[in-house]
């Protein structure tokens, strides 16, 4: 997904935050969805025993027993929770709580008050708190090759020395892939990924995907731009790098393809003077807490002049959903509804 936020601000910041670019090929390792063999996770039995999991860097984690103390990037932890991983989760990092103390949307259904928050913003990772949790596994998404999202590069060696880490590839692959891989890790951690709750969520996801496909076909060629807004720049996102956009394109959505992408290929930096470079009937606007929202953009004349804005066809976009069926089904449903109600602007 285009991590414009750790995705926006500046191209350098975005790259540094690791969400947005895969300058080289993102290391998918073995995108093998099962929980067995060398490519997936081999879960220990409930009675104990050795445990292993091969992550999307291609690194195999071998432990004497299944991890019981897992710390994760908030969206990755929330996705694992959706698949049934619960008491093993002891800590999180990344956007977990809003300023008013309520859960950040990226926290999903996580019981955040029970978890130790070792960092709530980019660059925050309290190593002392992390060590005190006695972690047995660190989990995060991976948008840039070999970089775990929100793990500060300057202190990663100290962090990785405290516990093994598992990466879920989340860049330049269609949305179902990181969902499948998160499910594989959840199963390896002992979750029942065939439970009724998970099965129902998967069915809902698949139905929503077909609703998007049908709405795109019926829309008569609606042009959609995925974007993120910051005080100085308007980011036009590539449908070839962001995992959800790749999937929407596969479902038939006509997405704007920016022609001057950043070095990692995730988005094009546009000055606000040039925000109207790409004509679109619908704008998917980054809705995360670090991005500016429509209410914040009233002083940007070029924003108000965009055809999609004039038509009231600006749709909240979560460039970094939690990679579970439960997390992504509502997003697809909302987008399908937005497509059904949208009209051509010119």
Overall description:
The protein has 346 residues and is α/β, with parallel strands linked by helices. The chain contains ten helices and 14 strands. The chain has helices at residues 11-17, 74-82, 127-132, 156-160, 176-188, 196-218, 243-250, 301-304, 307-310, 325-341; strands spanning 41-42, 51-54, 60-63, 70-73, 89-93, 116-117, 137-142, 165-169, 223-229, 233-237, 254-255, 267-271, 282-286, 314-317. The strands form three sheets. Strands 9, 10, 11, 12, 13 and 14 form a six-stranded mixed sheet that branches. α2 packs across α5. The longest helix is centred in the middle third of the chain and has 23 residues, at 196-218. The two termini are 29 Å apart. Residues 1-47 have low confidence and may be disordered.
């Amino acid at each position: 997904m285009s991590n414009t936020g750790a995705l926006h601000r500046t191209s350098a910041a975005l790259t540094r935050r690791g969400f947005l670019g895969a300058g080289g090929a993102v290391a998918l390792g073995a995108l093998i969805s099962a929980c067995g063999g060398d490519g997936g996770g081999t879960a220990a039995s409930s009675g104990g025993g050795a445990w292993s999991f091969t992550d999307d860097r291609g690194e195999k984690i071998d432990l004497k027993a299944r991890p019981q103390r897992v710390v994760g990037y908030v969206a990755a932890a929330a996705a694992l929770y959706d698949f049934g991983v619960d008491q093993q989760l002891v800590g999180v990092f990344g956007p977990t709580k809003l300023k008013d103390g309520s859960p950040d949307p990226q926290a999903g259904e996580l019981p955040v008050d029970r978890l130790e928050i070792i960092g709530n913003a980019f660059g925050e990772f309290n190593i002392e708190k992390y060590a005190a949790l006695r972690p047995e596994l660190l989990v995060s998404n991976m948008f840039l090759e070999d970089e775990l999202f929100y793990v500060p590069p300057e202190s990663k060696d100290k962090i990785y020395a405290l516990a093994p880490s598992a990466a879920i590839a989340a860049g330049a692959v269609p949305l179902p892939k990181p969902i499948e891989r998160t499910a594989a890790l959840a199963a390896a951690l002992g979750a029942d990924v065939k439970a009724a709750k998970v099965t129902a969520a998967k069915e809902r996801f698949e139905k929503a995907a077909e609703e998007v496909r049908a709405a795109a076909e019926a829309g008569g060629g609606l042009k959609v731009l995925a974007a993120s807004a910051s005080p100085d720049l308007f980011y036009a996102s590539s449908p070839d790098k962001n995992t959800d956009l790749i999937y929407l394109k596969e479902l038939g959505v006509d997405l704007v393809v920016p022609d001057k992408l950043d070095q990692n290929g995730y988005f094009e930096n546009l000055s606000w003077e040039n925000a109207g470079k790409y004509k679109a009937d619908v704008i998917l606007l980054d809705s995360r807490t670090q991005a500016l929202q429509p209410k914040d953009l009233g002083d940007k004349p070029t924003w108000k002049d965009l055809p999609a804005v004039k038509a009231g066809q600006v749709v909240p976009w979560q460039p970094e959903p939690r990679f579970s069926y439960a997390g992504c089904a509502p997003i697809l449903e909302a987008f399908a509804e937005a497509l059904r109600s949208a009209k051509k602007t010119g």
